[in-house]
Amino acid sequence: MTIEAPQYGKTRERLMRDPIVVRMAADLLTTPLKDLTHSDGHPRFSFMLSASKTFAARGGTGATHVGAVAEAVLHLVKMAHADAAKNSVEEVEPRHGQTTSEQL
Q: Is 100 contained in some domain?
């Protein structure tokens, strides 16, 4: 269980809407999560440092909590992976009543 201050979560949520963080997440979509996280899913310290440095170098501001940028980026990457997995399942298993390309 992770204990965090409420403001930390608010910072992470705000960062997830930041265009710089969104682009950083897009840049990492093909990077294996195991390279960025520990086995419990939390960001590696080296990734936290790299994410914060990249965010600042690209003009980002307001990342007041250590690891907040890395966690925001990881959350977006994980959401994109989940969406991609959901879409691939929907392609394999069409919804009831949908016509597939094989039926045409």
A: no
Ranges of H-type helices in 1-104: 6-16, 19-27, 45-57, 68-92
Q: Quote the distance between the C-alpha of residue 5 and its chain's center.
A: 21
> Could you read off the pLDDT of 14-26 as tens digits, one per residue?
999 999 999 999 9
Q: Supply the pTM of this predicted model.
A: 0.77
In angstroms, what CA-CA distances link 50 with 24, 44, 70? 11, 10, 8
Which residues constitute the domain of residue 14? 6-92
Residue 97 lies in a domain: no
What pairs with residue 43 in β-bridges?
A: 37
Is residue 11 within 8 Å of residue 62, measured between CB atoms?
yes
- The Cα 66–Cα 100 span in angstroms is 48
